[in-house]
Amino acid sequence: MSLDSEVRKRSDMMEETGPDPDPVITSSGSTIKTTTTTCKNNRKWLLLNTHLNAVIYSSCFWVQIGVLPYLSKKLGADPVVFGYLQTTFAVVQLCGGPIFGRFGDIFGSRAALVLSFMAAAMSYTILGLASTVSMLFLSRLPSIFMHAMQGSQMVVTDISEKEGRADALGKLGVSYAIGMVIGPFVGGLITKKYGEQSAAFFAATFSFISIIISLLFIPRNTKALSPQEKSAEKLEANNKEQPASVFSVKKILELLHIPTVLYLITIKIITGIPFGIFQSMFSLVSMEFFKLEPQQNGFVMSYVGVLSIVAQGLIVGVLSRRFSEPFLLRGAICVIASAYGLLYMVTDIYQFCIVIIPMVVGGTTLNVITTSAMTKSVTVTKTGAVLGLSMATNSLIRTVSPTMGSIMYKNYGWPSIGLLGLVVNAAVALFLFYHGKDSF
């Protein structure tokens, strides 16, 4: 194939991302320089809109997460019922995560993001209309496709180099963390002045705004911009390999035959159970153990969001450039184990705010490294599916952790959560030092 025809095919693949503004013609008549420049500009614009949507999605999600325990208590749900509500949400997301990933691989990231924001808007609207506990459970059902963060990771994975992928995913996490700062704060203010339902309607409104952003500014096929797919023929061949069915369980489970994927998924599940218990119960613990009001709870969650911004925006990027991923994986789990040990001794909110620092740093590093390593172990046409499998792991954890957490909290108290985290993560750390992989 001639150079000119190769360039033309590559340009056709990027047709939807925008026209070439100022053609630069070489002596052979090709547009190599223009294509390269346009590609870079489009990626910057694409990243900007992806990060903006991540901020909006996260803000809306944490608005409703912050008000959910207060609304459920107002409607008569006890801690055990609240645990069941959390479990329902996790089960629904567990079913939807891998399917959503396959949907994105087959139909493109734009369609996946629009589907996700539509599901979020529907979920928050039902939550705003809730007048019974049954309606709270009903509001969790549309979340089967509420995976906007997974969709954003698909976009970033598609257009990033393997060497800088951990840093790119970490920066996406910064945008999510910014939403963690904005969401609880705004949700607390709206709840205080107008009530819990108003906060849910606020989240639904901004989810519709994200739908518009996705339709206007996200290209249909971001995989065409992937640095790993250099030839048009290769991308076309890979796309033809994709079966028509989004619900191909066989194709999803085949990913577990990849040693790196299975290894990292196993570590995520084991270390994630204590964190899932901690995360699912924190809103309840802050209300009953720390005696925080909704607005104070919002401040604490915003503080955690600021820590996440620092960890993912600065720390993870620096560490990923200096150390190998297996080394960072071991170190992160050691830090998490230490944080749980300190959490066991926490008695007030001020101590908690200190202990949460190493937990956030270790947790974000663990999450970014495992996600990055899994996407590198598959072809670009399967990154959506492997991200879906990774997200399904988190959802699987959340299916059992709320019920486990409510039982532990009710029978053994808040310190039992810290003790469990210390034992589990210390055991995993020992395994990694003696039998863990030195490369992925």
Automatic annotation (TrEMBL):
Q: Name one Pfam family in it.
A: MFS_1
Return one GO MF term.
transmembrane transporter activity
The record ties this protein, via SUPFAM superfamilies, to: MFS general substrate transporter (SSF103473)
Location comes to:
Apical cell membrane
The record describes its membrane topology as: Multi-pass membrane protein
**Domain (Major facilitator superfamily (MFS) profile) ranges:** 46-439
The protein's UniProt keywords, in alphabetical order, are: Cell membrane, Membrane, Transmembrane, Transmembrane helix
Task: Identify the species of origin.
Answer: Pocillopora meandrina
Q: What is this protein called?
A: Organic cation transporter-like protein 2
Q: What is the lineage of its organism?
A: Eukaryota, Metazoa, Cnidaria, Anthozoa, Hexacorallia
Spell out the residue ranges making up region: Disordered: 1-29
Per the entry, what this protein does is:
May act as a transporter of organic cations based on a proton efflux antiport mechanism. May play a role in the transport of chloroquine and quinidine-related compounds in kidney. Plays a role in the regulation of lipid metabolism.
| GO terms under cellular component | apical plasma membrane; nuclear envelope
